[in-house]
């Protein structure tokens, strides 16, 4: 301190201290400018975020948003990226939109809440979930699990022109490649015993739900396990005693039966 006072007491010392102060100020200014440039560069650096392509309605599962590709990747300056902006589509899994998200809006974690409704999270648009009560054999209870793909067969007794007034057994493919949303992990107590059933929940559309419900009430329904992927669809048809025993096409024997079941003559 005394040294500084001594320098300030002379003209040369004052000039020297002024020069040192100017150099320090210049150094501080350079450091500030460098930091400012770095900050500006960081704010302007492009960041890839997910942006809604179309309206994402409140309540829509994130899995469906991803499946239907209702978003697109876009670049925005870091300074314009919202807090919690979603950059990875995997973040949407198991979540559900809590508010309407409009086209061009960045998707954020706050826009999607977690959900414990695993079945509802896999439904959107025309898809529906239906519980099909089945015994352990027809429903493959304990063998079929969530994520499997099944074909749905239904058996009926139908009156035909040649039936003589008696019901004739017919089996029809109701639908193919249905997704199993939920199924009992193992046969519950009593399942497999006569008149005991367990529910296997399938994802279907509205019309298929009505047809399967009718088939459950008026016939017998079977689930046939198929590969989860890669199995080509087959042409649905009906099966009768004649087609099984003689190979005669059902349309030859029961023209009106096929018509009743939704086929063509």
Stretches where pLDDT is under 50 for at least 5 consecutive residues are 189-194, 260-265
- Report the strand count: 10
Mean pLDDT, to the nearest integer, reads 78
Q: So how many helices? A: 7
Whole-number total of structural domains: 2
Q: List the helices and strands in order.
A: HHEHEEEEEEEHEEHHH
Strand content: 25-35%
- Largest pleated sheet: 6 strands, antiparallel
What structural class should be given to the helix and strand makeup?
alpha+beta
User: What is the radius of gyration computed over CA atoms, rounded to a whole number of angstroms?
Assistant: 35 Å
Overall outline: rod-shaped
Termini separation comes to: 112 Å
- Estimated helix fraction: 25-40%
Structure explained in plain terms:
The protein has 265 residues and is α+β, with helices and mostly antiparallel strands. The protein has 2 domains: 69 residues, Type Iii Antifreeze Protein Isoform Hplc 12, CATH 3.90.1210; 135 residues, no CATH class. It is built from 7 helices and 10 strands. The strands form 3 sheets. Strands 5, 6, 7, 8, 9 and 10 form a 6-stranded antiparallel beta sheet that branches. A two-stranded antiparallel sheet has the order 1-2. Strands 3-4 form a two-stranded antiparallel ribbon. The longest helix has 34 residues. The protein is rod-shaped. It starts with a helix and ends in a 5-residue tail after the last helix.
Task: Provide keyphrases for this structure.
265 residues, alpha+beta, Type Iii Antifreeze Protein Isoform Hplc 12, two-stranded antiparallel ribbon, 10 strands
